[in-house]
Amino acid sequence: MSKVEDFLTQEEEQEIVNAICQAEKNTSGEIRVHIERTSSLDAFDRAKEVFHELKMDETQLKNGVLIYLAVEDKTFVICGDQGINDVVENDFWNCTRDAMIAQFKQNNFKQGLVDGILRAGEQLKKYFPWQEGDTNELSNEISKG
């Protein structure tokens, strides 16, 4: 699959956006998904770059989470902002990563993303519960590179 546009159907993309909306109902955290064909950079370095490009490092509580996928490279990264990294244990994202990998291995990319998003929301809720007055600081739409 060489084109990012062909990676997910429009319906699958909408299910992912719906999962982001659902996950963010319980947390002040912000979750985004970015999909691109490939990167010449290390996946984590590229994810950090995209994190900044999407202004995810500008949220009030520094609690944004990016799920970055490079389709042709068959790699993904879950990247959290400083506010998250300051309060969570080192293996915080392992269960989210593992749930995604289980689906990805079966070529269920949409379900892997949905599972990852919902688990990320559950994890974030522990440290950043939704509170009265919380606003959606970032778009829930999938970004593509």
Compute the average pLDDT. 93
Q: State the shape.
A: globular
End-to-end Cα distance: 15 Å
What's the helix-strand series? HEHEEHHHE
- Structural class of the secondary structure composition? alpha/beta
Helix content: 40-55%
Radius of gyration: 14 Å
**Which strands sit side by side, in order, in the main sheet?**
3-2-1-4
Q: Proportion of β residues?
A: 15-25%
Overall strand count = 4
Summarize the main sheet: 4 strands, mixed
Tally of helical runs = 5
Enumerate the spans where pLDDT stays under 50 for 5 or more consecutive residues. Answer: none
Summarize the helices and strands and which ones pair or pack.
Layout: H1 10-24, E1 30-36, H2 43-53, E2 64-70, E3 75-80, H3 82-85, H4 94-104, H5 109-127, E4 143-144
Annotation keywords:
145 residues; four-stranded mixed β-sheet
Could you characterize the architecture of this molecule?
A hairpin with a 4-residue loop joins strand 2 and strand 3. The protein has a four-stranded mixed beta sheet, with helices on both faces. The protein is an alpha/beta fold. It is globular and about 40 Å long. It contains five helices and four strands; from the N terminus they run αβαββαααβ. The chain is 41% helix and 15% strand. Helix 1 packs parallel to helix 5 and helix 4 runs antiparallel to helix 5.
